[in-house]
Specification:
The chain is an alpha+beta fold. 33% of the residues lie in helices and 24% in strands. The longest helix is centred in the middle third of the chain and has 18 residues. It is elongated and about 60 Å long.
Length: 315
């Protein structure tokens, strides 16, 4: 299990914005996740809840996580908002400040945003997605595999394995795979509980494995990878794959983690799961039979060294 220590995060992100806890935000502030450029307005705040809304997502945050405060409430005006959009290449540029303020007002007054209101805004947002969807750029095979990466022939031995339960998938497939990806025991938080919400109802969510870069002080409290395990052959049906994808994405909302790995030991899939205008996106998929030949590709997507460097660029 990953060790948990006091946060010592920088107060300014590398792109020049304040890094704050969501609880430090004020009503009317504009914020972004650390790992996304989608702009939210803080619509409401109570002792145990912060309401964040955008044109495509509205929810109540009930636990602490860090965000970028991109505009303080006293600085929110058309001129500053326009300047802000130019600084954020992948933000929802068609969403005007008046759109955000309208949504925030309606959400604060009624607890929902009407379909009529969203219908006026979302068609343009969906069209924008086709041309301005965020692209995660990885230099192919920038990170070289260790020379002895298959010295124990694990990738060969697993081909004939049968895992009878989800627990066996976790212990006999996922844990060795995470080791191959460069993670150690201290980087791993098993069965991590987080507090979320469904509408006004408080819920507890359990992440099978939340991965950290435990020895890197600047990001040691940032979840860098979410891993969701399923029983062997569970992901042979598309409906089950989509269910696992949605499950991983729900964790992203409450952890600010951008990457997820879902697997039943037969299918391995990597997702961009950070909430944005395009929902989640499949970055990698292979079958167990292909894993040895495609492992360098996987290593360059979600290996510890790669994700450590990715998140360090954000802080």
């Amino acid at each position: 299990m990953a060790k948990k220590t006091a946060k010592k995060n920088s107060k300014v992100t590398k792109d020049g914005f304040e890094r704050i806890s969501i609880w430090q935000a004020n009503v009317g502030d504009l914020v972004c996740y650390i790992t996304s450029e989608k702009i939210y307005i803080i619509a409401d705040k109570t002792e145990d809840m912060v309401s964040m809304v955008s044109a495509t997502q509205q929810f109540n945050a009930k636990y602490s996580f860090d965000v970028k405060r991109v505009l303080r409430v006293e600085d929110v005006n058309e001129e500053n908002y326009s300047t802000l959009l130019n600084r954020l290449p992948y933000s929802e540029k068609n969403i005007t400040l008046s759109n955000l303020l309208q949504i925030a007002d309606e959400y604060t007054r009624t607890g929902v945003v009407s379909k009529a209101t969203l219908d006026k805004i979302q068609p343009a947002t969906n069209k924008l997605l086709e041309s301005q969807q965020e692209v995660i750029e990885f230099t192919p095979f920038e990170y070289k595999l260790p020379e002895n990466w298959n010295a124990d022939e694990w990738f060969d031995k697993i081909q004939a394995k049968v895992f009878r339960t989800e627990k066996e998938v976790e212990t006999k497939f996922i844990l060795p795979l995470l080791t191959q990806l460069g993670y150690n025991e201290d980087d791993r938080y098993d069965a991590m509980l987080i507090e979320g919400a469904e509408g006004s109802r408080k819920v507890s969510l359990e992440i099978d494995f939340a991965m950290f870069a435990n020895e890197t002080e600047e990001i040691k409290e940032q979840t860098i990878l979410i891993v969701e395990a399923k029983k062997e052959h569970r992901l042979t049906k598309q409906v089950e794959i989509e269910k696992a994808q949605r499950q991983a994405r729900s964790y992203a909302i409450w952890t600010g983690c951008k990457f997820g790995l879902i697997t039943d030991s037969r299918t391995i899939q990597v997702l961009d799961i950070m909430p944005n205008i395009g929902s989640y996106k499949v970055l990698f998929e292979c079958q167990r039979s292909e894993l040895k030949n495609r492992f360098e590709e996987l290593y360059n997507l979600v290996g510890k060294e790669r994700l450590r460097d990715y998140y360090l660029e954000l802080v």
